[in-house]
């Protein structure tokens, strides 16, 4: 990406991989309004204080800047895991996110649009969800269907491997001016 953009990768834990800078999303050591865009893929569920992290992300974005926040969407409403949960690199999971992340982002000063792949509402018979991991009925029953934007078509989703679609929910947040 560095060939096309002024791009800096960050990481906090650094056990799984290394980046140019080490950042804590709850206390980002960057000036106000210093970034035009932020991509955060499958990170926020590992941050203890979601609202503080969202406030920090908003603070470092310039007015009109965009945040693309991808989290696994595991249920309709956000809650902590019922039992301690860790991902493959032993990183603790503090939150299992739901659609209410939209309201939390808006409370932090973002205009928010939930983006989903074309596979999101399909039955996906060839890729059953892992047992107990996704509460599909709750996800579909509580989905803010009037606010969802589908990106790509079924062919593109299949080609890119966006299955199960619930793992690829992305929340676009544009920083208020």
Can you offer a commentary on this structure?
The protein is α/β, with parallel strands linked by helices. The chain has one domain (10-175): Rossmann fold (3-Layer(aba) Sandwich). The chain contains 4 helices and 7 strands, in the order E-E-E-H-E-H-E-H-E-H-E. It has helices at 50-60, 101-107, 136-142, 154-160; strands at 10-11, 21-22, 35-41, 61-70, 110-117, 149-151, 170-175. The strands form 2 sheets. A 5-stranded mixed sheet has the order 3-4-7-5-6. It has a two-stranded parallel ribbon with strand order 1-2.
Descriptive keywords:
globular, 177 residues, five-stranded mixed sheet, Rossmann fold, 4 helices, 21% strand, alpha/beta, two-stranded parallel sheet, 7 strands
Give a topology summary:
Blueprint: E1 10-11, E2 21-22, E3 35-41, H1 50-60, E4 61-70, H2 101-107, E5 110-117, H3 136-142, E6 149-151, H4 154-160, E7 170-175
Parallel strand pairs: 1-2, 3-4, 5-6
Antiparallel strand pairs: 4-7, 5-7
